[in-house]
Amino acid sequence: MSRAAAGRAVGLAALVLAAVFPLVVRSATWQNTVILMLMVAQLGVAWNILGGYAGQVSLGHAVFFGTGAYVSTLLALRFGITPWVGMFAGAGVSAALAVVIGWPCFRLKGHYFAMATIAVGEIVQAVVNGWELLGGAVGLSLPLQNTGFWFMVFNRSKLPYHYIALGLLLFTLGVNWLVTRSHVGYYLRAIKDEPDAARSLGVSLTRYKLYAIALSSGLAAMGGTLYAQKELLIDPGSTLSTSLSIKMSLVAIMGGVGTLAGPVIGAVLLTTIEEASRLGFGGTGRGTDMVVYGLLIVVIAVYQPAGVLGWVKQRFPPKAAPAAPGPGGAR
Amino acid sequence: MLLLQTILSGVLIGLVYALVAVGLTLIFGVMDIVNFAHGEFLMLGMYASFWGFALWKLDPLFTLPLTALLLFGVGAALYRVVIRRITDAPMLSQIFTTFGLMILFRGLAQYFWSPDFRSVEGSVLTGKVAFAGLQFGLPQVVAALGAVATSGAVWWFLRSTRLGAALEATAADKEAAALMGIDAQKMFALAWGLGAACAGVAGALLSTTFPIFPEVGASFILFAFVLVALGGFGSVAGAFWAGILVGVVEVVGGFLWDPAYKLVLVLSLYLLVVWLRPQGLMGKA
Amino acid sequence: MSTTFRASLLAALLGAALPATAEDVTIGVIYPLTGAAASTGLELKNAAQLAADLINGTEKSLALPMVGGGGLPGLKGAKLKLVFADHQGNPQVGASEAERLITQEKVAAIQGCYFSSVTQTASQTAERYGVPFLNDSSSSVGLTQRGFKWFFRTTPNDELFVQNAFEFLKDLEKRKGIKVKRIAILAENTEFGTGAARLQEKYAKENGYEVVEKILYPPKGTQLTSEVQKLKAAKPDVVFQSSYLSDAILSMRTYKDLGFLPTALLANDAGFNDSEFLKTMGKDGNYVISREVWALDLAALKPVIGKANDLYKARHGVNFNGNSARAFTGMIALAEAINRAGSTAPEAIQAALKATNLSADQLIMPWGGIQYDENGQNRKGAGIIVQVQDGKYVTVWPAAAGTKDVVWPLPAWEGR
Fold first, then answer.
1. Confidence at residue A212, expressed as pLDDT on a 0 to 100 scale
2. I need a labelling partner for C266 at 20 to 30 A (CA). Which of A48, A245, C136, C260 fits?
3. Average pLDDT of chain A?
4. Alpha carbon of residue A140 to chain centroid
5. Please, which residues 43-82 of chain A have a Cβ atom closer than 8 Å to chain B?
6. What SS3 class is residue C153?
7. Residue A176 lies in a domain
8. Residue C7 above 90 pLDDT?
């Protein structure tokens, strides 16, 4: 079996596993953990379009996540518009905002760009924090009582949230896949790897970077709507913080930057580490969970800078002959 | 008069920001790595001063050279153990290594020293400096002077010593420096040691006024980032002047406008500057 | 003979012969155990644990409900088992942890979470699952306005605290023949500070005071010079301040350095009443006035307060404070209800909580008792006003509880 085919097989298996998981495992805690994984994975994939494929490291993506959460929640609270519509409205607003932010910031490169996005993120958080219309520091909360498909709020059952999160992840992966197959993806790779050559060939770097940030931010905003619908409380501290922005990029890096499956793998890994260290040591109140979490991040970043997928590529180089041709696995 | 007092207060705190940023920009200039764990060096410097005072009644001002030495060791050791392995890694892995270190250090501080707030009470540095109707806390004034002296010493070291010149040469061109017989590994370790020592000194200077707790680095790191980018990545002089500018803008802006948006003001100024001049105030294009 | 009958007969026979072997009653307790508020979270955790240990123990010297019963007599001497969880100050984590405690640890009830935002999401989860949630230490007004059926709050909320502060001011003006005119508000700009500032502004205007400055500042900054300069320029008589610990310390030092001295500083609990505050501030912390829910000198009126505090101090080396005393009280109130319910069925506990009627002398708080209204808010809660005198918090209001006279105005910083 070629590596690509093996990859497809693993992907399919993962999809089947994700689809049946909540039907088999009935523990709400486990179900919730998997939903968190799916949500973080979706954000990582969205981030990856800009940060991985276009090579523009944004550490302010929480702005777009928050935009999605605030737009859909405001529409639901003020005008009774269903979050299903709000989700796309949020994505649109977020994409427009991303272009406004992206246009000046793309003048900057490398570290300068990353630092500027942190600054933008902090500015937006501070402004929303003082903005009464958006609930200020208290934030906005959706009523627990309005449940059902229309409100995208579900009572005890985790199944709807699970499948919405999974659907959103697949949608995001699909968009990502389409991008990589299109000429946009081609130019993005050129911009990332050979910016000077790309420019000399007449590729408008800024235009394609703007495409990437618009898509990336729109998808992140959809994740924000889902968060708002699941937790029913959004405030600047939890939806617009720099630590959230960093988490989005962290999952992509752990799994493998600029790859389709990387952020998903990273999300599984990071969520597992987070939950395990908190459940294992969090109740002690001695910071042991932070020690474990921090140490693992360092170890992964140092020893596997290309992420889990980088490791896979090292172990199974593409040219290698079929290792163990399974039934129908021969090339 | 109130305005003058406010401006000078801004200068005082700005000088401390500058010292933290000088360490950060030194590391960046030599290695192209942004150290997210830099605030934790400051935190360690504070705790070193605190324990010196709590255990042996040694004033933070007297233990300052020891704190600097200790943090130099921490920085250099960190380079040898961890950072050395990511010298040529992509920017993202570098960011996340130092980000992980930041969390690790905070966790360790909480583990060993508890999350309690500590402070140094009854240091020789208490009292006020008053003149011409202006008044400042003595610790702030000493901290600012100490920051100027330390930043100046780093600047002098880079300009006027052979070791400093070797460090600058490595920063400018690794390969060329290697051809001249400069050991890049040693230079990198030196940069991390010096960078950590600067933050540690800043921590020691702040320990008499600022509460000490595991997460204290978080308050300063954002300013340090802004200063490094504003001054120009790798420019020690740039970070220094940017520190003063940012301190004044923050304090005066908060006073004249709304304190809720003092950070917004600083960050907007920073974005405006790098938009007009992407390499920062004193960075090389 | 049916199996059930045989089993119950057996149980009855055994029960007579053997000491009860009831299952433990598990209670989930969620506090911030890492992050910026970890120090407070640990105090809350320690206090809740002390309450549980006293209830499980047989030492009866402390005259509080349930204490010394060797467990819950209503459940055949079942022991309380606390499972602690860390919410890290993050609402999403709080909700996840509540869910884990309910589904995995099968807790009978949850207590927490200190942060109002986390209490909001965690209690949402409890509401969804129909598990009683006892909120011991969050004072945001909105929490009990959500129409929840499983939410019970022992502590008074911010509105009452702010009312108290103005009653205190009015009392003082009458008693001392002084006149306060100009009020300034300084508050950190997250949920806690902005909410308090809004209420303070409202009540200040209603009571005929002039609000000369209202400053909302970003918390945990590196300096508060601009804020203090603004205060200085506004020349207020009284400053109302809501700050967490690091800002409380920094602001006091800045006041002193810049020579800012209002007639009085009225703090809104939080950082000013943290165990670390006076340790850090030393003499400079003297004469701060703060709203509180608990003070050690109340032991003069209620000896049980002193005894409970001795136990806490013997274990942890510090006195109770408003937060830890509330966590302790929350656990007692929760255990008392579960015991009365005689079962760990959620509906039984919910009904017992609704019927709770603890009297003033059953508490280590200066409250009229614990009795929940239809929203789950304890209607008998009350606040007190304390002032730091000689490095101790002493109660100065209300007169009934007041043990010392208030020092007014603030003496100069120098020569204290």
1. 93
2. C136
3. 87
4. 23
5. 51, 57, 59
6. strand
7. yes
8. no
Q: Does C253 touch chain B (CB under 8 A)?
A: yes
Considering chain C, what is the average pLDDT of its residues? 90
| Residue in the structure block whose two tokens are 């911010």 | C158
Q: Which two tokens mark C346?
A: 């959620």
User: Residue C184: what are its φ and ψ, rounded to 5°?
Assistant: -120, 145
User: Does residue A288 lie within any of the structural domains?
Assistant: yes
DSSP conformation letters of A104-142: HHTTS-HHHHHHHHHHHHHHHHHHHHT-GGGTTTT-EE-
Q: Which pLDDT score, from 0 to 100, does residue A329 have?
A: 34
CATH 2.102.10.10 fits C159-292+384-397, yes or no: no
Express each pLDDT in C298-356 by its tens digit.
Answer: 998 899 999 999 999 999 998 998 999 999 999 999 999 999 999 999 999 999 999 99
Topology annotation, domain C3-156+300-370 = Rossmann fold (3.40.50)
Count of structural domains, chain A: 1
The average pLDDT across C140-144 equals 91
Give the Cα separation of A266 and A304 in Å (integer). 12
Q: Work out the angle between the directed axes of helices A3-24 and A28-48 (0-180°, nearest 10).
A: 140
CB atoms within 10 A of CB C121: 26
Q: Is residue A71 part of a domain?
A: yes
Q: What percent of chain B has pLDDT over 90?
A: 58
Residue with tokens 């969620």: C30
CA closest to A290 among chain B residues: B107
Closest to A77 (Cα-Cα) out of A140, A136, A128: A140
C251 vs C241: CA distance, rounded Å: 10
B residues 170-229 closer than 8 Å to A (CB)? 214, 222, 225-226, 228-229
- Quickly name the fold that domain B2-115+129-276 has: ABC transporter involved in vitamin B12 uptake, BtuC (1.10.3470)
Residue with tokens 């992907």: A11
Structural domain boundaries, residue A157:
3-315
DSSP β-ladder status, B128-131 and B134-137: antiparallel
Q: What is the mean pLDDT of residues C1-17?
A: 42
Q: Is the pLDDT assigned to residue C249 strictly greater than 50?
A: yes
CA distances, C14 to each of C7, C10, C72, C296 (Å): 10, 6, 19, 46
β-strand partners of C152: C134
Of all residues in chain A, the one with the smallest CA distance to C215 is A130
pTM for the predicted model, two decimal places: 0.87
pLDDT of residue A153: 87
Taking the CA atoms of C124, C126, C132 and C135 in sequence, report the sign of the dihedral they define. negative
Q: Looking at residue A213, which CATH number applies to its domain?
A: 1.10.3470
CA nearest to C214 within chain B:
B258
Which of A163, C218, C253 lies closest to B250, judged by CA?
Answer: C218
Find chain A residues with C-beta within 8 A of B261's C-beta. Answer: 126-127, 130
Contact by Cβ (8 Å): A298, A254: no
**Residue C394 is inside which H or E element, if any?**
strand C392-397
Tallying the residues shown for chain A, one arrives at 331
| Identity of the residue numbered B50 | F
Name the residue ranges covered by the structural domains of chain B. Answer: 2-115+129-276
Dihedral (CA of B247, B253, B256, B258) sign: negative
A212-227 per-position pLDDT tens digit: 999 999 999 999 999 9
Asked whether residue A320 is assigned to any structural domain, the reply reads no
CA nearest to B21, candidates B193, B284, B164, B202: B202
CB contact under 8 A, C34 and A231: no
pLDDT tens digit sequence for C73-102: 999 999 999 999 999 888 889 999 999 999
Residue C9 has pLDDT above 60, yes or no: no
Distance from CA of A79 to the nearest CA of C (A): 20
A280 in reach of chain C (CB within 8 A): no
